[in-house]
Write a structure and sequence with these properties.
4 helices; 24 strands; 5-stranded antiparallel beta sheet; mainly beta
């Protein structure tokens, strides 16, 4: 995974160079109330000239409610249509169709008052059916499933299932994809399931096992890097993040943000601190620095600004000093040694749980 991410970063910077400092543009008016919005591949708003911009949406905007209104079309960077549908003042209504990059249909679904209703059909890039799903008020049923070559493995809700799903951004397993394999009974997961992670061209590695009864998760063992176990549940049907576009949430044009690396660190910190009882805490911030070699390995951890609570600082020091990898800094497309300054904010949410906002990473020399 490190090799894949490092290669991706290097290619991006070599192809794009250092972008000129200018006011970011996330959308532009086409005419009247029609706008063109710019998103990354996960439907976060992206700067027009950002190397991570992957999608352009042409849609009318209700200027009073600031919501999408009417039919829309999404295009990739090559100008190919990848999604089309309709909004009624921010509410998804009617038939939505997504397309593979080769123009073949990817999936089609009908929305009623923002909710998928009835059958949803997914297809492989070769135009053969992948799966037929039934969305009900309470559950999603897998009616039929086919392998890419056309062999049907689930018939009328019963059979065996094995489908590959990409991880979204950085993840603690270190893989690009995961493969879920198991039995389908009456349209639901049943019995023992295996979850394997892999990168393209590489063998699968077991990362989790799960046990189901009538679609309910009975036991889930998540094999994380430190060999501990954590009950979890992996999705088994394709996920399209296009609904995220409706929130008009942007990300900074850097690999730490776009890859979700900074969010992943914050999520891990949140999980650790939610095990503590911090009654006297409301909110605070912290800042630290680390030295980074050209391979992304950190050293010389130092607090620049600790929080106001010694017990929190001690735990932060223990957790943060054990992070064994950051994306390496690049200068003119080449990895360099660098110093990172990392800032974070902690607060207690409305449920009284400790939450970390996504950290902010500043690189002294490189990108």
């Amino acid at each position: 995974m490190r090799r894949f991410l490092f290669t991706l970063m290097t290619c991006i910077l070599l192809l794009n160079g250092i972008r000129a400092q200018e006011k970011p543009i996330y959308y532009e008016k086409v005419e009247g109330n029609t706008f063109r919005f710019y998103f990354d591949k996960n439907y976060y708003l992206a700067e027009k000239n950002c190397e991570f911009k992957s999608i352009e949406r042409v849609v009318k905007l209700n200027t009073k409610t600031q919501k999408f209104d009417g039919s829309f079309k999404d295009f990739n960077n090559n100008g190919r249509l990848i999604l089309e549908g309709n909004y009624n003042n921010g509410v998804k209504e009617g038939l939505f169709k997504a397309y593979h990059s080769n123009g073949k249909i990817k999936w089609e679904a009908t929305f009623v008052n923002n909710i998928i209703t009835g059958e949803v059909n997914h297809y492989y890039p070769n135009n053969k059916p992948a799966m037929n799903l039934l969305y009900t008020d309470s559950v999603i049923l897998i009616n039929n499933f086919w392998l890419p070559e056309g062999v049907q493995k689930v018939i009328n809700g019963n059979g065996t299932f094995a489908f590959s799903i990409p991880f979204e951004g950085y993840n603690r397993y270190g893989f690009e994809f995961y493969m879920a394999k198991g039995k389908i009974k009456d349209g639901k997961q049943d019995g023992k399931w295996r979850i394997s992670g892999y990168n393209k061209g590489e063998e699968e590695t077991l990362i989790a096992t799960e046990s189901y009864q009538n679609g309910e998760l009975i036991l889930g063992n998540d094999y994380v890097a430190d060999n501990s176990y954590k009950q979890t549940r992996f999705g088994i049907i394709p996920y399209d993040p296009f609904s995220r576009a409706e929130s008009l949430t942007f990300k900074a044009c850097n690999f730490d943000d776009v890859s979700n690396f900074n969010m992943m660190i914050s999520k891990n910190l949140t999980e650790v601190f939610n095990l503590l009882d911090l009654k006297d805490f409301t909110e605070d911030s912290f800042e630290y620095s680390v030295k980074l070699d050209k391979y992304g390995d950190p050293s010389k951890f130092n607090f620049i600004k600790p929080t106001s609570f010694n017990h929190i600082n001690n735990l932060l020091l223990n957790v943060l000093s054990n992070i064994d990898f950051y994306y390496p800094s690049l200068e003119n497309g080449l990895p360099i040694e660098d110093k990172l300054t990392i800032a974070g904010k902690i607060y207690k949410n409305s449920e009284g749980k400790i939450t970390f906002l996504p950290i902010i990473i500043h690189r002294e020399k490189g990108q």
